[in-house]
Amino acid sequence: MTLAQARKRSSLVGMLRLAFTAGAAIAAGIMVGHLAANAVTSGPGKIEQLTSEEVVTMVNARFTGRDETGSTIVITADTAQRQRDNPEQIALQNPRLVTEDGTEIDAPSGLYDQAAQTLALFEDVRLIDAQGYDFRSTSAKMFISEGRVDGIDPLVGSGPLGDVTCDTYEIVEDGDRLRCRGNVNMMIFPGGRDAHGNASAANTATPAVDEE
Amino acid sequence: QISGEGGPIRVNADTSEVMERQRQVVLIDNVDIMQGNARLRADKVTIYYGGTGATQTAGMSGFGDIESMVAEGEVFYVTPDLKATGDVGTYDAKADTITLTGEVVLVRGEDVATGRRLVMRLEEGRTTLDGGDGQVQFNISPNERPAGEAPAEDASN
User: Fold this and answer.
1) Taking the model in full, what pTM does it have?
2) Using CA atoms in the order A84, A86, A87, A89, what is the torsion angle rounded to 10 degrees?
3) Which of A136, A212, B45, B46 has the fewest Cβ atoms within 10 angstroms?
4) What mean pLDDT do residues A66-92 have?
């Protein structure tokens, strides 16, 4: 190898070494830049926004809230599934709502709206409260923060006073008032149900009222 | 109670409201209450319970027993023996009476009487009608009576 060839080769190697070093520096720069950009835009602790295709299902879900008087309300469900198009709405299986004063409302299915703080219950809705009332209906909508229940389907129920059926109903003031509308039929037992040896109509689908 | 017999009370109405704290039941529009052989109809009926909390009666929590009832608006009270109408009807459990006031009309069989205040004692089955500041009017249809039976006296207030 002549001197000229050797000089030529070493300048080639030098150029290659330079190019390689520059390439490495550029690659490192790109990576650091990407990381920095990612960190700035996403911000620490920000939950990644759900895309509409993703569905989140919780098992043994539990939600707690408060009504207007500040008493706690707990909603549990076997499964809770966020809705595709509206993440605030959660479809519940076997939901059950329990209030501080011992009222329990459950149903096979329901829809909880976190934003509106409502719980809509469907199919076989059952409400039992501490005063001994036992109501059934095929739908109920709970306005949790207002402590109100709205029912657009017939109600069948029994309680300390006796039995009641009606077309629609509303329970307001945290269960203190029960309003029934349309074809209200009551059977009142003066002195209490057992004072007359009256069979409890709590379990029968329709109370003992004969049609006229 | 609206009948001396007692027993369960059957109620029909367009609207009802059960108020736990006040221990009241309000029935509104087309109210029809039946107990035993007595029937009470009115536009509105409010049932007041006298419970103070636990009562001896099993199954009753808080409401206790019926203390009184107030019926308002076209009040009709019907039993097999009589029919009576008035503007306001009040049942008082302690006195065991139903009192009708206002334009009171009492019909018994074919006899008709009008006055301002009718008091019916359920257990005794006794009825008193008075004319208030007016007179009691009686309209008695003398039908064929068996010989020897004295005709009804003419009552005046």
Assistant:
1) 0.71
2) -110
3) A212
4) 85
Spatial distance between the Cα atoms of B83 and B54, rounded to a whole number of angstroms: 38
B98-111 pLDDT, tens digit per residue, is 999 999 999 988 88
Name residue A129's beta-bridge partners: none
Q: What is the pLDDT of residues B29-41, one digit of tens each?
A: 999 999 999 999 9
Q: How many CB atoms lie within 10 A of CB A116?
A: 13
Which among B17, B20, B58 is the nearest to A192, CB-wise?
B58
Interface membership of A102 toward B (CB under 8 Å)? no
ipTM above threshold 0.90: no
Binary contact (B17, A179; C-beta < 8 A): yes
- φ, ψ of residue A23 in degrees (nearest 5): -60, -45
Interface of A with B in 13-72 (CB under 8 A): none
| H/E run at residue A8 | helix A3-42
Q: Structure tokens of B62?
A: 């808080």
What's the rounded Cα separation, in Å, for the pair B110 and B69? 29
B15 touches chain A (CB under 8 A): yes
DSSP B146: P
Domains of chain A from N-terminus onward: 59-197 (2.60.450.10)
Q: What is the mean pLDDT of residues B36-50?
A: 94
CA B144/CA A120 separation, integer angstroms? 70
**Nearest-5° Cα angle at A128, A139 to B26:** 80
A123: confidence class by pLDDT, cuts 50, 70, 90: very high
